[in-house]
Design brief:
By secondary structure, this protein is of the alpha+beta class. It is built from 17 helices and 10 strands. It is globular, with a radius of gyration of 30 Å.
Length: 487
């Protein structure tokens, strides 16, 4: 009896494993992605079994995703999901909804595609009460909530607190799951959410916990992300040496999954860190590595391709709905006149409601826009008046190096890399800064004539359309985009 029970347990484990998408990836070697793709495509051409085709298409999509070719990954995930759906393999069908959502959500402005696939996965996770699926579902819900935070104005911190509450639920489910990778992801998100709201001490606690778990179980990609996010928390605190330490630890982690975009992000941060540390040699090194990867990854083409694939899917789904409605209509031919009348009445009511709503909505938006426009103009006017008032009182500006520059003597400013050269009638000053920042400190008689030059309009003698000439026969280039500033 015990032997039979043991055999049944083994058999059950095999079934569960076979039903898991990750079970199809067991023979995949990360370092052989391109070779895997060629092999799988050859297998697809020769395969007749729908189940095997569904598996092959999923594995092919995962290989493309790991190579950061998300458009191709989405195409094969869609094909795999459709095949599993026709076979009534519910676990795989709904699990692929999450895979598809993650691919779509990795793109710019993904929210315009909606949450159809994620909602399908979340509903299935709730229905099956699987700890693994619920942990993943609530982790993703927390991420969606987190991205509602206004990263520019940083006023709605309550959004992050709400995201952390959702993440608490995800963590509760993960503790009852054997999926350690998801648990590490959740710990990483706890750290990320907390340092975003400047609670760096709390963030550090989760990062260290996640790093220990990922390192112990050799979950390499999540370890890379943890090192990167931990380093970024120091970067935000302007502790650039500590940031570089953790960024370099991330660089040593061997990853093949999502390598291109992950390394591009890392190189960008290393470049910026070394820039703040005035380490020009290392800045140049990582700038070169970043530029190389940025050219290799064509984000724009991927976004367009993903949009086209998703649009095609939505069209097919709508066609299915239309086809279903046609069948219903054919079954009720006897009552078609009644149905036409009812549909007509419903349509007219809907149109009337829609028109009324559009009118009200249009008026409301118009009033809101006018109010917002007036508020912006009012704020800008006050800011300009305050700036002019201050400049009139002080008649000078003070640079970052504490040098005082009198405005009546300032002829022009030239920007080079991260530095500014200020030319006055008496001297020349060299200071670190950006042209977009210093122009905000100057009165209206200073204007930008080129992406690298600001001039004092009171010093302009003439211009020939391509250059402006200042007192002392000084010639400054004039860009077409800035001609209107001196008209």
């Amino acid at each position: 009896m015990k032997a039979l029970k043991y055999i049944l347990l083994i058999f059950s484990a095999i079934i569960i494993k076979a039903q898991s998408l990750n079970g199809y990836l067991e023979n995949q070697k990360f370092e052989e992605f391109p070779k895997n793709i060629v092999t799988i495509k050859r297998n697809i051409l020769n395969e007749k079994s729908s189940l095997e085709l569904a598996k092959y298409n999923y594995v092919l999509g995962k290989n493309f995703e790991y190579l950061n070719q998300e458009d191709s990954a989405l195409y094969y995930y869609m094909k795999s999901r459709d095949l599993f759906g026709k076979l009534n393999y519910k676990n795989q069908y709904h699990d692929l909804s999450l895979e598809i959502h993650k691919v779509i959500s990795s793109q710019v402005n993904y929210d315009k595609y909606g949450y159809t696939f994620f909602n399908d996965y979340y509903n299935y996770a709730s229905k099956t009460r699987s700890n693994e699926r619920l942990a993943l579902a609530y982790n993703q819900k927390a991420i969606e909530k987190f991205y509602e935070f206004d990263f520019d104005k940083r006023k709605n911190v309550e959004v992050i607190d709400a995201a952390i509450k959702v993440l608490d639920t995800a963590y509760t489910y993960s503790k009852n799951s054997t999926d350690l990778e998801t648990k590490v992801k959740i710990l990483n998100n706890f750290g990320l959410f907390n340092y975003t709201k400047n609670d760096f001490q709390e963030a550090e606690k989760f990062f260290i916990q996640g790093i220990d778990l990922a390192a112990k179980h050799k979950i390499q990609y999540e370890l890379f992300i943890l090192y990167y996010n931990y380093g970024n928390s120091f970067f935000i605190q302007k502790k650039y040496n500590e940031a570089v330490y953790w960024f370099l630890k991330a660089e040593t982690v061997p990853i093949q999954q999502y390598e291109l975009k992950s390394k591009r992000l890392l190189y960008q941060k290393l470049k910026e860190s070394y820039d703040y540390l005035n380490d020009h040699q290392n800045r140049k090194k990582y700038d070169s590595l970043y530029t190389h990867l940025n050219k290799k990854i064509n984000d724009t083409e991927q976004n367009i391709a993903i949009h086209q694939i998703n649009t095609k899917y939505q069209v097919v789904e709508k066609d299915k709905q239309i086809s279903s409605l046609k069948k219903i209509a054919m079954n009720y031919q006897e009552n078609k006149i009644l149905y036409f009348v009812l549909i007509g009445i419903v349509f007219l009511i809907a149109m009337y409601s829609f028109v009324r709503w559009k009118r009200v909505d249009y008026r409301k938006k118009k009033v809101d826009q006018e109010k917002e426009s007036l508020q912006i103009e009012h704020t800008q006017t006050i800011q300009e008046l305050e700036k002019v008032k201050q400049l009139v009182i002080e008649d000078h500006i003070v640079l970052k190096n504490r040098t005082k520059i009198y405005l009546k003597e300032l002829l022009y400013i030239k920007a080079e890399d991260h530095y500014l050269q200020l030319y006055t009638s008496k001297k020349k000053e060299f200071v670190r800064g950006k042209i977009s920042e210093i122009i905000k400190e100057l009165p209206p008689n200073f204007t930008q004539v080129h992406r690298s030059f600001i001039v004092n309009k009171n010093s302009i003698i003439s211009n020939n359309g391509t250059s402006v000439f200042l007192e002392g026969k000084i010639e400054i280039p004039l860009s077409r985009n800035f001609k209107k500033n001196i008209e």
